[in-house]
Amino acid sequence: MKVPMERCQRNLAILWFVGGGILLILLVIQTMGNHYLDKDNEAWGWLLPNLLPTLSLIIGVLMADTFGRGSKGKQVDTFVYRLALAVSVVYLLLVLLPILAQPVVSYAPLDLLKRSNLWLGPLQGLVSATIGAFFVKAEK
Amino acid sequence: MLPWGCGAPREAAPPDDPGSQTTDVMVLPSEEPIPQFPWPPPRASATAALSCARIAQGPGQHNLADIDTRLSEALESNGYTEKSYFSVPAGFAMVTRIEQTEEDGTSKAPPVRWSVDVGALQEFSLNAYLRALFKANPGFYRLIVFVVTSKPFAQKKTGVERDEAMSWLAEGANTLPSSIGNLPLTGRHSCTALIYEFEQPGAGKAAALKQPGRLPGRTHLEKAKLWNAMGGGR
Q1: Distance between CA A99 and CA B17 in Å, rounded?
Q2: pLDDT mean over B111-124
Q3: Ramachandran area for residue A34 (φ above 0: left; ψ -120 to 50: alpha; else beta)
Q4: For residues B71, B72, B75 and B81, what is the CA-based torsion angle, rounded to 10 degrees?
């Protein structure tokens, strides 16, 4: 079963921009509240590499659409689309978790962010691979 | 040579003549050694003067052991079950265990009260959660030293590190020796609460002594529910 590529891309883009936006806003408010004290750089140094690669890929595809090398008329396998969507949701939630959990765990906030790289690192590879495969599998 | 040096607590020097006491040097019998409190005491965040007469209560002749008993009762009734004793010129110092307080000086509920690091939220509320999520989560700590002596004293120019202050509890004696406790309470005796207040900017950060403290000494004692229990000030 196939679904239009354009719709899939739009939905994924909305998911990533909304999810990424929430994460960015949370970190901005934490930075303004001096939550990380003198370690703001490290907190941003944790978040940006977890978001920017995928956001850059999505923006790149959207730009390609705009300049005519897009995916109009292309179809994508539903399973691949749903897999990309599910992996993206899980990944964004797992990025959100170490931020929202800070008040209820005994770790220092930055320690918790650093520890989360244990699972976010491998998962980011999965996300990139899934979204990459999603585009590769697109067909007319 | 000064009879009472500065720095870390040390054991009392062995007496030349166990039965004698000079006005400046308290010589303890060798069977009752008790460490000396750093003297003059390190600069505190705040101080509060308590009335020895009110602490001792009741008519008649009192001695320093009576003061110790009343202080200990007041402390224990408010959760301060650990304390230790040091000698000071013509008196004694009683050190409480360091405790974690709220920003306004109120003691936190155990077990957080006795924790020496900022922990997670103990009682969940949306307000507390959002505050902990977006703001720095500082820890406030307080250690009280009650100094009972008939000698006037000033404080050192320098303060004390939290670790060193915390070590006082373990380094002091567990009871007040009778050689000090039997000293008569006179009108010249004063009871001064030295409050050492430390602030930790966030979890895992070092705590620093607040000088001057955020709160006056009396407020600290009131928030710790010790002010009234000890008969109030002069």
Answers
A1: 66
A2: 82
A3: left
A4: 160
Residue B183 · residue B122 · CB < 8 Å: no
Q: Which of residues 24-63 of A touch B (CB under 8 A)?
A: 29-30, 33-37
* Model confidence at A132: pLDDT above 90: no
Phi, psi (rounded to 5 degrees) for B155: -100, 155
Query: Comparing C-alpha atoms, which of A109, A120, A119, A92 is closest to residue A22?
Result: A92
| Chain B: closest CA distance from residue A90 (Å) | 22
Q: Quickly list H helices, B41-134.
A: 52-56, 64-76, 126-134
B183 neighbors B192 (Cβ within 8 angstroms): no
List, for residues B46-97, the tens digit of each pLDDT value. 999 988 878 877 667 888 999 999 999 999 999 999 999 999 999 999 999 9
Q: Which amino acid is at B142?
A: R
Q: Reply yes or no: is the peptide bond before residue B9 cis, omega within 30 of 0.
A: no
Q: Nearest CB to B133: which of A103, A108, A111?
A: A103
Q: Is B202 on the interface with A (CB under 8 A)?
A: yes
Average pLDDT over residues B102-115: 89
